[in-house]
Amino acid sequence: MNEHLKKYIELQKQFHATKNEPESVRALYAFKEELEQIKDKQAQEVLVDVYDLLDFKKSAYDLLSQIGDRSDRKTLKRLSVMKEYAEHWGNGYAIPKLKTKEEKQKDQERWAQLGLPSFRYHPDPLDTGIFEQSGEGVVCDCCGKTTRIYYRGPFFSVEEINYLCPECIANGKAAKKFDGEFQDEYSVDDGVDDPDKLDELIHRTPGYSGWQQEYWRAHCGDFCAFLGYVGGRELRALGMLEDVMDDPMWDDEQRKMIEESVNGGSLQCYLFECLHCGKHLVWMDVD
After folding, report:
1. From CA 284, how far away is CA 268, in angstroms rounded?
2. Which of 42, 178, 180, 269 has the least C-beta neighbours within 10 A?
């Protein structure tokens, strides 16, 4: 047994024993990054397993397609199973790693280079997938300019809008021009008394896409930042499961539902973070 495989087996045991909590996830990510720098076949074969365990389904399938022995029946069978996951899941449901401050800063710098404005209540709109990128560019329905980054989330307006650029959302021009809202003003938590904060949320903040009516959480007298789509597994990996359970909104049965939820499944959770105290909250709905 080669050293890469031995290390993988140890990390896999730790991952399952801790129910994919933050430390075990970080260790697997570090191992993944290490293996990605090694080009010998043994390392690459183990990297397929690491990708698969972390649910980078497309990466696992693509790599095995490159290095796998197609004369081997086990390899062909595994490829056939992995192909379906790769086509339907891609890498979109990979287990998240809790980002360091340095990684968050790099993200902000990258988005600034792309010309993406800052959104207080939706700080990572590329990571959450609410903005998409186009190599050729599309024309913003509001300003008429070509943009390579465009909005794909909900916008409540009488007119049907195809594309909006980030800038027209951030400066409020899109909401004003089309008399629209990115979040229903009645589908928000109570406790925010400042009308300017509500105006910023519904008119100048990209929304998110829920199964049913999107709902925005609030805490400490302000609306929270939307962080993304999660299930119980993701909440454990981020070390946030206990935090979101400590919420008077949910009863014991609902807490159990959150714990057992699956990202992308019939019961979906949406993760928020208080901008003032860092408290994590979720909203959930069903398809």
Report:
1. 6
2. 42
